[in-house]
Design brief:
There is one protein chain. 46% of the residues lie in helices and 17% in strands. Strand 13, helix 11 and strand 14 form a beta-alpha-beta unit. An eight-stranded parallel barrel has the order 1-2-3-6-7-12-13-14, surrounded by seven helices. It has a two-stranded antiparallel sheet with strand order 4-5. The radius of gyration is 19 Å and the shape is globular. The protein is an alpha/beta fold. Helix 3 crosses helix 13.
Amino acid sequence: MIRQLIEKIQKTKAPICVGLDPMLSYVPEHIQAAAFEQYGETLEGAAEAIWQFNKEIVDHTFDLIPAVKPQIAMYEQFGIEGLKVYKRTVDYCKEKGLVVIGDAKRGDIGSTSAAYATGHIGSVQVGSKTYSGFDTDFLTVNPYLGTDGVKPFVDVCNSHDRGLFVLVKTSNPSSGEFQDRLIDGRPLYEWVAEKVVEWGNASMDGDYSNVGAVVGATYPEMSRILRNLMPHTYFLVPGYGAQGGTAEDLKHCFNKDGLGAVVNSSRGIIAAYKQEKYKKFGAENFAEASRQAVMDMVADINSVL
């Protein structure tokens, strides 16, 4: 799976993914109005608005990008109707040839961890038939429970040719409360990084492992350290743009070959029409604004590689 992602990155020359993390407030009023007219101001109406919003953004950007990253929480807030749209969005993106990174940050132990893995990146047996639940290509995983919590995901990766991105050093301001704590003289995120490399050795695919790492763009010095510790680990990099990370900040996430990282932008792309820079597009042409924001992001990142 990591090889597929790399091939798409090389083909598009765009080491990025678009975070499909829709809040209802991001959806232009004309789309909301049409959805509410059909379904009322209900959870179903909200989910329909989200679907139409996602679909238009994907239609305007899929030829420019290798991957998308839908954050499942943005769909779960609308209950079952939202989860239906999450699945619909995943399927539509895969039809468009995009790699889908499911951002669910799952993590547990034993049969629970295995069930999460089955539901998101594996398949479940129902009588004589087999079904893939959410059927994403990658899944984000929380390693707080250690090997017991991660190994079931790695096992499913290997059996179904899928991938993981394990949280190592996240982009949020309070990440250091735990991740930077010193253990035997070294920060926790370095210990986690070494375990990710160990887990990843069981799932190599060419030069890189199917087991990647989440490394935030907002801590450039730490990303440089982690890049050295994890030369064969692909990084999923949040924090660019709206969270304050710049192209200069994230250049250490990449290897000398220009590979090694895929940079995410969520509201900076999907809500671009709300920014002063793209205001000229207007709400009616919100997806055109997203397309321009993608092109600008790609040019910005490639300028430092």
